[in-house]
Amino acid sequence: MCGLHMAFCRLIGGGGKENHTLLWYTRLHTDMEVCKMSQTIDKYWRSFCQSKGMPAGTAYSAFAFGDSAEMADRLGQLVLSGKKTGTSGAYDHYAEEPLPEKGDYQIVLNSQGEPLCVIQNTDVDILPFREITARHAEKEGEGDLSLTYWRNTHWHFFSKYHTLELEKEFTEDDLVVFETFVVVYPTTV
What we know:
Layout lengths: L3 H10 L8 H7 L2 H22 L8 E3 L5 H13 L4 E5 L14 E5 L5 E14 L5 H7 L6 H20 L8 E11 L4
Parallel strand pairs: 1-3
Antiparallel strand pairs: 2-5, 3-4, 4-5
Organism: Vagococcus acidifermentans
Protein name: ASCH domain-containing protein
Pfam family, one: ASCH
C-alpha cells in the first residue's frame, strides 16, 4: 500500500469526518490510484488556500456525493451548474463522526476522485425527516425540485442505509442533517 493512502483517508475524513463514500472509492480504485487522488486533492486545496490568502493547514474534508460513481458525477455537476446548493444526510450516519458545521470547507470530488470545486457551508439544519420543506428540496437541485421527489428519493436512500448498516427502520421522526452551501472555488462556476 502506498504511504499516501492513509493521507487520502484523512482527507476524506477531514480530521474524523469519515465519509461512507470512501467505501466505494476503495472498491473502484487501486491503492496507487488512491495515492494519486490524495496528491491531486492536496494540490487543489493548496491552490484554493493560496487564492484566498488562507493557511494551507485550514481544516477541510473531501467527498463525493451519494453511494455510486454515477451519483457522484451527476450530483457534482449539479453543484457546478449552480442548481444544487444543499445536501442532506440522515443524522444517524454521523454516529462516529462530527456533524457538519456552518463555515466548514469541503472539496467536492467526481467519481474518479478528482476535485470539482470547494464549497463552504452557510447553514446547517437538523430536523426530523417529516419537517423537510419544499425550500430544502429545491436547494438539493435534484429531479423536479419538488418536496415529493425529495421525500421519495431520500426515503429510499436513508431507509437502505438504516436497514443495511443500523439494522433498524428509518422513520418520519428520524433526524436529517441539511447543509446549505456556496461554491467558493473555482469562483468562475
